[in-house]
Structure prediction request, 342 residues.
Amino acid sequence: MEELLEKLDTYRKEIIGTEISGADAAEAYRIRFLGTKGIVKNLFQEMKNVPAERKKEFGQILNEFKQLAESKYDEVKPNAQRPTPNANQMDWSLPGDPISIGTRHPISIVRNRIVQIFGRLGFSVAEGPEIEDDWHNFTALNLPEDHPARDMQDTFYIHKNPDWLLRTHTSSVQARVMEKQKPPIRIICPGRVYRNETISARAHCFFTQCEGLYVDENVSFADLKQTLYFFVQEMFGKSVKIRFRPSYFPFTEPSAEMDISCLICGGSGCNVCKHTGWVEILGSGMVHPKMLQNFGIDPNKYTGFAFGMGVERICQLKYRINDLRLYSQNDLRFLKQFVSAT
Ligand code: 2U9
Prediction:
């Protein structure tokens, strides 16, 4: 033990007294003291020969010695690894290290474009919570208690009584705006919605909706048609045609689905449009008078139109994406293809 302590003392003096300059000397020091067969390692191996009653004392001394050896190396290491070049040795004209800036997600690109197009028509963006209560997601929107959308199998419920759930559509945002704001109301509501679906190429348990609402005096179905026609022309190009088919939504009456002429075949028929020449892109209608009443808006004075679309669907048509799962797999080979899209 005494012999060991003497050895330690000699090494301690060596460390304190040694001047280390340059990368080679620093490396030699590291190998001698801190290497896998170095002095520190060897001294720790001597522990087994120390009598049991002095193990604690020797352990402490050894740890302090190890810290001394390491801190000496830390002092000289930066210089050893990165010698500071003097200004004359620097080539200031060399290009910098490239910074990887990533790309916008295709859904963000399309959502921003939708917001921009409707922004030009005076629609502003409204947002709301993704965890909703029953009233704003269902009851206020003409979806009575026995409606199939309320089924546990279709909706992710979070809490019972009070009923909280993941919103199944962004219509709850319109409901919240109508609650607070009197007409004129001209909003679009982009955001994520959730449905209890089995994930496949054509369905997902979450997706992005963008719904719109316009309530004012004298708003007509002609306004609805022209607004949506303007939107698809801006989104897909001037040559696109539209058609409306009667439909049903609980919040609107009359309701209609809107198709656009197939972007792939121009209307002559192909696999994408299932040889019909048309593809469905959104749902729409005149706001049901009962809805206006629900929010204290006089249906004899005000009318309105509303519409809703899946951003993934618009993106699918614009960029020809054939599998919904691609949007959420974070595969860089997919995402990097949108580097130049705006
Ligand atoms: C209020 C008033 C009116 C919202 C509307 C649609 C038509 C619609 C879906 C179709 C497929 C979107 O992508 S999708 O899931 N939606 O077609 N949504 S009218 O009407 C409202 C909502 C709230 C207060």
